[in-house]
Amino acid sequence: MCSGQTGHAEAVRIVFDPKIISYAKLLELFWENHDPAQGDRQGNDIGSQYRSAIYVLTPQQQAEALTSEARFQKAMKEANDSREITTEISAAKPFYYAEDEHQQYLYKNPHGYCGLGGIGVCLPPQL
């Protein structure tokens, strides 16, 4: 995986109860808390395994993800960020858990590097 040649992405699997948090809210958190326009990287981590991606389970999730992407792209342009979103949105494939050293990384390494951060753009409410 570290070689960036496997086609895999470092990802998290999110299991949620839509009675507690909506898929739309998860998408909002996704867009606002990383840079979706960096291509195959996040911060100092470079390679296709670090790409921005949303892996969907249903056609409904696919539609919501694509709609939210368009809204966030528009918000970026309105904030004078002319970059194009490079986030991959596709059907989920089998999920493999990372080795133990990568589980709960920031808990185990409280001062560890985590280059995630938003770009200062908010996802506008859907009308």
UniProtKB/TrEMBL annotation:
The record's annotation in InterPro entries points to: Met_Sox_Rdtase_MsrA_dom, Met_Sox_Rdtase_MsrA_sf, MsrA_MetSO_reductase
Tell me if Transferase is a UniProt keyword of this record: no
Q: Which cellular component appears as one GO term in the record?
A: cytoplasm
Residue stretches making up the Peptide methionine sulphoxide reductase MsrA domain: 1-114
Which reactions is this enzyme annotated as catalysing? L-methionyl-[protein] + [thioredoxin]-disulfide + H2O = L-methionyl-(S)-S-oxide-[protein] + [thioredoxin]-dithiol; [thioredoxin]-disulfide + L-methionine + H2O = L-methionine (S)-S-oxide + [thioredoxin]-dithiol
Q: Which keywords does UniProt give here?
A: Oxidoreductase
Reported EC number(s) for this entry are 1.8.4.11
Q: Which GO terms describe its molecular function?
A: L-methionine:thioredoxin-disulfide S-oxidoreductase activity; peptide-methionine (S)-S-oxide reductase activity
Under Pfam families, the record lists:
PMSR
Matching Gene3D superfamilies: Peptide methionine sulphoxide reductase MsrA
For this chain, the family text in UniProt reads:
Belongs to the MsrA Met sulfoxide reductase family.
* UniProt-listed NCBIfam families: msrA
Q: What is the protein name given in its UniProt record?
A: Peptide methionine sulfoxide reductase MsrA
Its organism's taxonomic lineage begins at: Bacteria, Pseudomonadati, Pseudomonadota, Gammaproteobacteria, Enterobacterales
